[in-house]
Design a protein that fits this description.
Number of strands: 15
Order of helices and strands: HEHEHEHEEHEHHEHEHEHHEHHHEHEEEE
Mean pLDDT: 89
CATH class of the domain at 170-307 and 422-450: Alpha Beta
Shape: globular
CATH superfamily of the domain at 170-307 and 422-450: Response regulator
Low-confidence stretches: 1-19, 21-48
Distance between the termini: 37 Å
Helix content: 40-55%
CATH architecture of the domain at 170-307 and 422-450: 3-Layer(aba) Sandwich
Strand content: 15-25%
Structural class: alpha/beta
Largest sheet: 8 strands, mixed
Radius of gyration: 21 Å
Strand order of the largest sheet: 7-6-8-9-10-13-14-15
Length: 453
């Protein structure tokens, strides 16, 4: 019976993927036919008043509203250092937020409005799995470089020249979560993922990885991320007696589910393994201020995460800059919690990569500087290592090639401009920061984790 259930889920996943691909192709056709219309003229790379703009395109309202402030913080942190170093070829960097509400239907008009009202747009960051399928083609049609935090499988095999992804697909994330569960000796696993597109992309790969590891899925719950209670889903999980829960449900939804599971389980927390997106100050604060409490939660929660190079040369400046945004960015209850947050870490690095590529190419136009991103990220023969925008500019002025080593380390891209880096098992500390535990999980691809790429 379980195999038949998996088959139905896989068929459903395939159907959803076909729908997304059809939507993506439709958007491409729409953009191609409307790119010349008023209000859609690209202004990327233009010069006005000695400034350029970086837009954080992401949910700032709605169920996934916790994501936007992570990316906004990355923009303010990176731009502060860039501006203190003299800007990009003398141009100061401004940050702009564009609220997609986590909905493809709202995202496209919001992006069109962004192009109609934004001067000197040089880069887009953010663009989550909620809306990436519909907005990435629009960015490309305007020749705007984008660093997106999407794990959708559509981007695993379709090349978008202006699209860069500094984190692996969600399928690799799922494999890393299962690796943590396997390392801990868990056998029976419950799944609890939100009904949003960004969370559902984890489910099918997780089921496949669990089966391949000889483990069992004992409950698979889809959570309405707009709901305020999950009594039915929580009861189903508790009744299934799992060794652990694999989950992604951001913000209030995740807090509500775990609180109700805790109560129904006799005030005892079932171990949880979250996605990297759940290394989030809003989620941490919500859970720990409730009946579960701090110590109980941090003793029973792990999350897979891309390795954060806390001992590297880029980290001290990054930490200083992120903490300096306290009070400037709304919706972040604890900025300490952003120091290892996937989106903040990698988009900070992405902004530095793009800004250095602009300097290297002598242009803020995406069509001219995008090729240099790969050269700086991956390094070329004879390149010197740099860990900040200021150091990179200094080296370029002396005629040197540069290799950027950021907070997330070195980025090696595949042919679809997705970077695969090593994963680690992170646990929260009482102050909301995280610490890596155990050995590296290795480089996780769509099916397994390996010691090397």
């Amino acid at each position: 019976m379980r195999d038949m259930t998996w088959g139905r889920r896989e068929d459903s996943a395939v159907a959803r993927m076909r729908i997304r691909l059809a939507m993506l192709l439709a958007v491409l056709a729409l953009v191609a036919s409307t790119i010349g219309l008023p209000g859609l003229t690209s202004r990327a790379g233009a010069s006005s008043g000695g400034t350029i703009t970086i837009a954080a395109v992401a949910p700032f309202t709605g169920a996934d509203a916790a994501l936007g402030p992570k990316y906004e913080t990355a923009c303010y942190a990176a731009s502060q250092a860039i501006n203190l170093a003299g800007g990009v070829m003398g141009k100061q960097v401004n940050c702009k937020t564009v609220d997609t509400r986590g909905d493809p239907a709202d995202a496209v008009p919001a992006v069109r409005q962004m192009y109609a009202t934004t001067s000197n747009l040089a880069l887009v960051i953010g663009c989550t799995s909620d809306e990436a399928s519909t907005v990435v083609p629009v960015f490309g049609a305007h020749q705007t470089v984008s660093f997106c935090m999407t794990g959708e499988s559509e981007f695993d095999s379709v090349h978008f020249p202006y699209f860069f992804r500094l984190v692996p697909p969600d399928a690799a994330d799922s494999v890393a979560m299962v690796k943590i569960a396997h390392n801990k000796g868990f056998k029976n696993i419950a799944l609890a993922f939100g009904n949003d597109a960004g969370s559902q992309t984890f489910v099918t790969p997780a089921v496949s990885a669990i089966k391949a590891a000889g483990m069992n899925v004992v409950s698979n719950q889809t959570l309405d991320i707009n709901a305020t209670t999950f009594q039915t889903e929580a009861q189903a999980i508790v009744t299934a007696h799992p060794d652990a829960i694999l989950m992604e449900a951001l913000g209030a939804a995740g807090v509500a589910l775990l609180t109700e599971v805790y109560a129904l389980n006799g005030n005892k927390m079932i171990p949880v393994i979250g996605t990297s997106a759940m290394i989030d100050p809003v989620f941490f604060t919500g859970v720990t201020t409730g009946p579960i409490g701090v110590q109980n939660f941090i003793s029973n929660f792990d999350a897979d995460n891309q390795t954060v190079n806390v001992g590297g040369p880029a980290y001290p400046l990054y930490k200083k800059l992120v903490m300096a945004q306290s009070g400037k960015v709304k919706g972040v209850p604890n900025f300490q919690g952003l120091l290892s947050a996937n989106g903040t870490v990698h988009l900070y690095d992405g902004i530095n990569l793009a800004a250095l590529a602009m300097v290297m190419s002598h242009s803020t136009s995406g069509s001219k500087y995008k090729a240099d991103i790969l050269k700086i990220a991956q390094g070329t023969k004879g390149a010197v290592s740099v860990s900040s925008f200021a150091a990179g500019v200094a080296a370029l002025k002396h005629g040197k090639k540069i290799h950027y080593l950021g907070v997330g380390g070195s980025y090696q891209f595949d042919s679809y401009q997705t970077a695969f880096g090593p994963f680690e098992d992170d646990q929260f500390k009482a102050d909301g920061t995280t610490v890596a535990v155990g050995a590296s999980l290795g480089f996780c691809n769509l099916t397994t984790c390996k010691a090397k790429l």
